[in-house]
Amino acid sequence: MFPTLTPEITSTNPVVQAIISGKAPQPARLAAARGLLPLPQNDLLEVLVALTTSDDAQSPPLQPKH
Question: 20 to 30 A from 3, CA-CA: which of 9, 23, 45, 49?
Answer without folding.
Answer: 23
